[in-house]
Write a structure and sequence with these properties.
There is one protein chain. The chain is α/β, with parallel strands linked by helices. It has 2 domains: 2-159 and 318-357, D-Maltodextrin-Binding Protein, domain 2; 162-314 and 395-445, D-Maltodextrin-Binding Protein, domain 2 (3-Layer(aba) Sandwich), CATH 3.40.190. It is 44% helix and 13% strand. The protein has 19 helices and 15 strands. The protein has helices at residues 2-27, 40-49, 62-72, 87-99, 111-119, 140-145, 168-173, 182-195, 208-218, 237-251, 263-271, 284-290, 330-342, 345-351, 359-362, 365-368, 381-389, 401-406, 422-439, and strands spanning 51-56, 76-81, 106-110, 147-148, 151-152, 155-156, 162-167, 202-203, 223-226, 229-232, 255-256, 276-280, 298-301, 319-322, 443-445. It has a 5-stranded mixed beta sheet, sandwiched between helices. Strands 12-7-13 form a 3-stranded antiparallel beta sheet. It has a 3-stranded mixed beta sheet with strand order 9-10-15, with helices on one face. The longest helix is centred in the N-terminal third of the chain and has 26 residues, at 2-27.
């Protein structure tokens, strides 16, 4: 599966590089005064006239949003298509854009993948629709993620502010305190594994999303992007905090060698042999559906800190809705995107289990007071909302992060299966990403 995914992602990157070449040769609208303006009256007129909007998205809560939007706008038909997730979705989108045929009017794109499409002028700048006026409506991490080169290329659909999910039953049994720092986390891992050699503080086989999120929280900023000029450097102090701490867990074999989202992973979460999970606030629904037997055992806590007393957090996951440049019916398309991500559709999605990126909903008393039966009645949204407010908004992904992530297991991943150290694995990932970027027409430094 990994090999197939890698080939797909390489194909995506190649398509994007071809578009990049066209941009470099003068195919862009850099000389224009700005994005074409589409007024609210234009949007209202389009809604009154009606038409069909094709939306490519895999997020299940959009089904209810489509139903509600069509009811409010009876002359508009939303054609919701699931193109697959991750590599499958991006391959389909890039192929359609390249062929100039079958391009959707709206597409779901994860934050880490958005940059490559924005840079290559394949997405519509939503500033022309007045999207910049929504800046204060979103938490900092997601809003920063949809911006590129002064443009706004999507509206945040959801967010993944991180928290530490921990098995309270296990912690209580072995008298382990909930860690507030990552050093305490390592000590908790040692205490747990000593008490029960079959139990681990967490599972980790190497994951690019988790690694970049923990680097983000630690203050590392390995990627600097200015158009086609890129710098990659994993040698800063934040990266050193991450590698020195996480290396202790690997050296002492304190993390379960179980891949995420597998049957063995769900089993470990259910029987207490995997005792914590540091991930995004979208996770509760997965606990409820996939780890039913542990209902009442788990709780949510703030993410441990690299420095005692800090409150830094990071995003893990999340996606946006965008308007591909080659799509049609852009006024109707934007109306749907704004409805789904900034309007009444947000509440429908929250009721369906989505975690919002909108500050009004994050700060809403009813939202924060929601009791989670799975977490023993805990008001977990208070933990998640505080995390969202503490995400630094200066993180950048590579404009070819999709490709970079596809080679993670061949570089950093070696630290999980051999004697390679994490810091050396990051250096190898850096070098490979630099080489690839330069080959694709970027100017990359390290």
């Amino acid at each position: 599966m990994r090999g197939k995914t890698g080939r797909l992602l390489r194909g995506i990157a190649l398509l994007s590089s071809l578009a990049l070449g066209a941009t470099a040769c003068g195919g862009s609208d850099d000389g224009d005064s700005g994005p074409k303006a589409v007024s609210q009256s234009d949007i209202d007129a389009a809604l009154k006239k009606g038409g069909t909007v094709t939306v490519w998205a895999w997020e299940p809560t959009l089904k209810q949003v489509v139903t509600d939007f069509e009811k409010a706008n009876p002359k508009v038909k939303i054609n919701l298509v699931n193109p697959g997730t991750g590599a499958e979705a991006y391959t389909a989108l890039s192929n359609a854009i390249s062929a100039k045929k079958g391009v959707p009017d709206v597409a779901q794109i994860e934050y880490y993948a958005l940059g490559q499409y924005a840079l290559t002028k394949e997405l519509t700048d939503l500033k022309g629709f007045g999207a910049d006026k929504l800046a204060n409506d979103y938490s900092p991490g997601p809003w920063n993620a949809v911006q590129s080169g002064g443009g706004i290329y999507g509206l945040p659909m959801d967010s993944g502010p991180m928290a530490l999910f921990y098995n309270k039953k296990v912690f209580d049994k072995y008298k382990i305190a909930v860690p507030t720092t990552w050093d305490q986390y390592v000590e908790a891992a040692r205490k747990l594994h000593k008490a029960n050699p079959k139990a681990y503080i967490t599972s980790d086989m190497g994951d690019p999303g988790m690694t970049t999120s923990l680097l983000w929280q630690a203050g590392s900023r390995p990627y600097k992007v200015d158009g086609t000029k890129v710098k990659i450097d994993f040698s800063d102090a934040g990266a050193a905090k991450y590698t020195s701490t996480w290396q202790k867990l690997l050296d002492d074999k304190l993390v379960a060698p179980i891949p995420g989202w597998t049957d063995a992973w769900y089993k470990g979460l259910g029987d207490g042999t995997i005792a914590t999970l540091a991930t995004g606030a979208w996770m509760p629904a997965n606990f409820t559906s996939g780890v039913k037997n542990a209902s009442g055992d788990w709780r949510a806590a703030p993410l441990p800190q690299w420095t005692a007393g800090d409150k830094a957090s990071a995003e893990n996951g999340g996606s946006s809705l965008v308007l591909p440049e080659a799509g049609k019916n852009e006024a109707l398309a934007y109306a749907f995107v704004e409805y789904a991500n900034a309007g009444k559709g947000v509440q429908a999605r929250i009721k369906g289990g989505a975690f919002p990126a909108t500050t009004a909903d994050l700060n809403d008393k009813a939202f924060q007071d929601t009791k989670f039966p799975y977490f023993g009645g805990q008001e977990a949204n208070k933990v998640f909302a505080e995390s969202a407010a503490n995400v630094a908004d200066d993180w950048s992904y590579l404009p070819y992060q999709v490709y970079a992530n596809s080679i993670f297991n061949d570089t950093v991943g070696k630290a999980y299966v051999s004697g390679t150290k994490l810091n050396n694995g990051l250096k190898t990932w850096q070098d490979a990403s630099v080489k690839y970027g330069n080959e694709q027409g970027f100017t990359v430094e390290k």
